[in-house]
Design goal:
This protein is of the alpha+beta class. It is built from 17 helices and 22 strands. The chain folds into five domains: 103 residues, no CATH class; 78 residues, no CATH class; 105 residues, no CATH class; 99 residues, Zincin-like; 121 residues, no CATH class. Helix 7 packs parallel to helix 8, helix 9 packs antiparallel against helix 13 and helix 11 packs across helix 12. The chain is elongated.
Length: 563
């Protein structure tokens, strides 16, 4: 498209497919989805302004392919636009529009078409959308602040969004309001800008302009100042190109920035600084651009792993059930005394606490030898830091915290529900937590005696089987089979054993009912399968209601009715 000023007015020329009289009619035209003007309002609104609303009516002429010429004027008598068409004296390749006696203001001319604005392309991404399979070019331009849609000027981004933009954009898949100066959806605009910037290494120029060096408690960090539209764009749906990640990483390396986190994460700032790094705080929407850099928590964890030789995380699922039970006891103490803290298991021979991330790192050796003293020691660091701000070894704060932790653990163990949970942990119930009996047994509780309740809540068995004696018709209860599965992964092996033993029980019952085995042989098979031999009396019962201890939920659940 070209815009030219002549002696008598302004020419607008393009080399398109031309227009027909239908372009001036009310209603829409059938156009390919990637073309400008889905319904032709732009032409009609423009004609109304030039011929009737401008205050100085202008004559308009359209010369188009096929040797056709149109002119347009407003009729006050008909209160309508009148279109006159005839034969052109000269052929044109496309459409030429002449606005007689209209001379376009210079600033409008320079903005109207993105190429006329002399904006410098920074990068381009060609893509389609679900509604339109045709791939079209979307551009990032500089200097910034302007929005073009399908090559035509729309508005200043600040006028639409309220924030200035570092770049200008020529986008293809943004929807506009009928007034053509506002976007239909700010979210749609943000998504499309994010898509294009995700492929644009030039975004580093905006990032660098926004970097602000700050200080927190004597520790240096950087903040990405939220002063441009691009710092509030949602990049979560964008595909960030590797070259963009690399460009961002190179920029941050120049400033010796080693980690990033969200606005307001001064704990992260302090933790990174404590490990000798520099943190950058950025809006969460921009996180995808910085993923070549570790997050603050990841940076600290990496530093922790190198602090003590061999201090690398342990997959807890590979630990023996008894060991995991002891770990759960420590977590019960921790949840009661300082629930905000975490306990992680690491390899090595030294346990330690890191206040920056409020985490107790228990080494595998202390766990293997059930070293409650080490756990209490590190728990005192966590409790003292929370209560007194700091509690390093050999300080008054630590000594006070140590005494308070000991007192709190003693109080914890005086509670019946707490003590029952600890007893379950000792027997390998790796997810045990304090529960009242109603919550622990559910519908099974009314069927149990007080002795059975007391025994099972402290040391659960895999099955509790309820049946009616065929002789007396009295409902009886038979706890059966040890709970603990000794091999890792405990949850998986436990579930496997539950299924296997249930299948074995059903098989023995069916054999007994078919008289393939007698009482003595049934007792031997039950014993071999680690099922209670007392179940012999239940084999000819009309039905068995089977409950099992769910090791993941730490409670008894109804499993199946066997007839």
């Amino acid at each position: 498209m070209k815009i030219e000023e002549g002696r008598f007015g302004t020419w607008i020329k393009d080399r398109g497919k031309g227009i027909t009289y239908k372009a001036f009619m009310l209603g829409g035209e059938e156009k390919p989805c990637e073309m400008r003007g889905a319904y032709g309002e732009g032409l009609k609104i423009g004609l109304i302004w030039f011929t009737a609303l401008s205050g100085t009516p202008y004559k308009t002429y359209f010369s188009t392919r096929g040797g056709v010429v149109f002119t347009c004027y407003y009729s006050e008598l008909a209160d309508a636009l009148v279109i006159v068409f005839g034969k052109s004296k000269r052929p044109v390749a496309g459409t030429h529009v002449f606005l007689r006696r209209y001379f376009m203001p210079k600033d409008m001319y320079e903005k109207l078409y993105y190429k006329a604005a002399k904006l410098k392309p920074v990068c381009k991404k060609v893509y389609s959308i679900s509604k339109c399979p045709k791939e079209m070019p979307n551009l990032v331009l500089y200097p910034g602040g302007l929005l073009y849609v399908r090559d035509i000027y729309v508005n200043e981004i600040k006028e639409m969004i309220g924030k200035p933009a570092w770049f200008s954009y020529n986008l293809w898949w943004v929807e506009l309001e009928p007034n053509r100066v506002m976007v239909n959806s700010a979210w749609n605009l943000s998504r499309e800008v994010g898509q294009v910037l995700g492929a644009c290494p030039g975004i580093t120029s905006m990032i660098e302009d926004c970097l602000q060096e700050e200080e927190y408690g004597g520790m240096k960090y950087y903040m990405l100042e939220d002063k441009y539209y691009e710092t509030s764009v949602d990049y979560s749906g964008a595909v960030v190109a590797p070259k963009v990640r690399e460009a961002v990483q190179r920029l941050l390396k120049n400033y010796k920035i080693t980690a990033y986190s969200g606005y307001g994460d001064f704990d992260g700032v302090g933790a990174v600084a404590h490990e000798g790094g520099i943190c950058l705080l950025v809006p969460e929407e921009m996180f995808p651009l910085f993923r070549e850099l570790p997050k603050a928590s990841e940076f600290v964890m990496k530093s922790l792993r190198t602090m003590v030789e061999g201090a690398v995380p342990v997959d807890e699922r590979t630990l023996d059930a008894f060991v995991r039970g002891r770990l759960q006891i420590w977590r019960l103490w921790k949840d009661d005394i300082c629930p905000e803290a975490k306990i992680e298991v690491i390899k090595g021979e030294r346990s330690f606490y890191r206040s920056e991330i409020n985490t107790i790192f228990m080494c595998e050796n202390d766990l293997a030898y059930y070293s409650d003293e080490s756990c209490i020691h590190e728990l005192s660091h966590a409790h003292g830091t929370k209560r007194y701000g700091t509690a390093p070894d050999l300080t008054e704060n630590f000594e006070k915290a140590l005494a308070e932790v000991g007192r709190d653990i003693s109080m914890f163990l005086t509670n019946r529900a707490n003590m029952a949970a600890v007893e379950r942990c000792i027997t390998g119930c790796i997810h045990a937590t304090p529960k009242i009996t109603d919550e622990f047994f559910g519908d099974l509780k009314p069927k149990l005696t007080e002795t059975q309740i007391s025994d099972l809540i402290n040391s659960p068995l895999m099955f509790v089987i309820v049946y009616k004696s065929p002789v007396t018709d009295v409902e009886r209860v038979c706890p059966s089979s040890p709970t603990l599965a000794h091999k890792p992964v405990v949850e998986d092996t436990y579930d496997k054993y539950v299924k296997e033993r249930l299948k074995t029980l059903i098989n023995i019952k069916n054999k007994f009912l078919r008289e393939e085995i007698g009482t003595g042989e049934a007792r031997e098979q039950l014993d071999k399968a680690k099922l209670s031999t007392g179940l012999v009396e239940a084999l000819d019962a009309e039905r068995l209601d089977i409950y099992f201890y769910d090791i993941k939920k730490d409670r008894y659940m109804w499993l199946e009715r066997v007839k």
